[in-house]
Amino acid sequence: MKKTLPHDGERVVEAAYGATAEGRNILAMHLASYSRALEFCSGKDVLDLGCGSGYGIASLAPHARSVVGVDVSTAAVEYAREQYRFPNLRYEEIIADRPTHFPAESFDVVLSFQVIEHVVDDAAYVAEIHRLLRKGGVALFITPDRRTRLFRWQKPWNRWHLREYSDESLAHVVCKRLSILGSEVMRGEALPVAAELRRYRLARWAALPVTLPFVPETLRFAGLALLSWISTRLQKQHNEGASQSSSRTSYWFERDDHPGLNVLVIAKKS
Fold first, then answer.
1. Which one of 23, 116, 202, 255 counts the least CB within 10 Å of its CB?
2. What is the CA radius of gyration of the chain?
3. pLDDT tens track for 164-203
4. Is 81 exposed, middle or buried (0-12, 13-18, 19+ CB in 10 A)?
5. Is the distance from CB of 29 to CB of 186 less than 8 angstroms?
6. Residue 68 has pLDDT above 90, yes or no
7. Beta strands in the chain (DSSP E)
C-alpha cells in the first residue's frame, strides 16, 4: 500500500497541493526555494533540515555529491523514501528540538526551508546548524516574511508557526552563530503574487481575535484549527486561471529591503 500524508497545512505534499490553484501556487513557491539553492549545492554534501515530504531535496539530488533529508515526522520520512529515490539520497528521522545524530562538520550545505518558524528554540536550532557545517560551509534559511503576512503585533495565523520573521529579525538570530553573507526576498509574477497576497490579507483578518498577542498558545492553536476546518469545507477556488500557470519559474529571490513573500538569509561558517 502506498504511503500517504495528511493534507493539514503542516507539510507540502506534491500530489495534494497540485489539486487546487492555491496549492499549486504554494508548491511553486517552495520549488523556487530549492531552485535558488542549486548554485550552493552542486557537487556538495547537503542536508535538508526539515525535508517534509521529500520533493524539494529530491530535486537537488542529481546535482549534489550527496543529499540527506531529515524530518521529525515518521510518516513524512517513510513517504519521502517511497516517493523520491536517488542513489545519493537518503532520508532519516530526527527528534524535534533535539540535536541531530550526525557528527560535527558533516555537511557543506545545510538548508532550512520553512522550518525555523516551527522550532521552539531558534537559537539552539542555529547552533546545531553551525555544529553540522564544515568550515566555510553555507546555510540557507528561508521563512515566510511576517511583514507581508501579519499585522505588526499579530501572532501567526498558520497554527503550526510559533513565530514569523522579517529579514532583520531572522538575520539577528542567525548572526549569533554564523556570518551573514546576504539576505533576499521572494518576488514573483504579478498574477500569482496578487493571489498570494490576497490570501494573506484574508487570513490575517479571519484569524482575529485568536492571533492577538495576549492570547495563550493553546487557545490560538485550537482556534486556528477550527478556522482551518471551516475554511476547508467552505473553500472555493479563486483566480484559477491566474494561479494555474504558476511554476517554480514564476518566483525568484532578489536583494531588496522591502517586504516579500518569503525572506532568505544566506550565512557561512567561518
1. 255
2. 18
3. 999 999 999 999 999 999 999 999 999 999 999 999 999 9
4. middle
5. yes
6. yes
7. 45-49, 66-71, 89-93, 107-113, 133-144, 179-188, 251-254, 262-268
Euclidean distance between CA atoms 256 and 149, whole angstroms: 17
Confidence at residue 270, expressed as pLDDT on a 0 to 100 scale: 94
DSSP-assigned states of every residue in 151-212: -TTPPPSSTT-S--B-HHHHHHHHTTTSEEEEEEEEEE-HHHHHHHHHHHHHHHHHTTTTTS
Average pLDDT over all residues of the chain: 91
Distance, CA of 48 to chain centre: 11
Peptide bond into 209 cis (omega under 30): yes
Read off φ and ψ for residue 49, nearest 5 degrees.
-90, 90
Which residue type occupies 197?
Answer: L
Give Cα 129 to chain centroid, integer Å.
16
Cα–Cα distance for residue pair 217/220, rounded to 1 Å = 5
Helix pair angle (190-206, 21-41), 10° resolution: 110
Cell of 183: 539576505
pLDDT digits (tens, 9 = 90+) for 134-163: 999 999 999 999 999 999 999 999 999 999
